[in-house]
Amino acid sequence: MDVYESAVTAAHVTSRTVPQQIAHWARIGRELELSPGVNHRAIAQVLAGALSYDSLGEQEQAFVREAWAEHVTALRDGLNFEAEFPAAGKSYSELDEDGNVVVRRARG
Question: Structure pTM?
Answer without folding.
Answer: 0.54
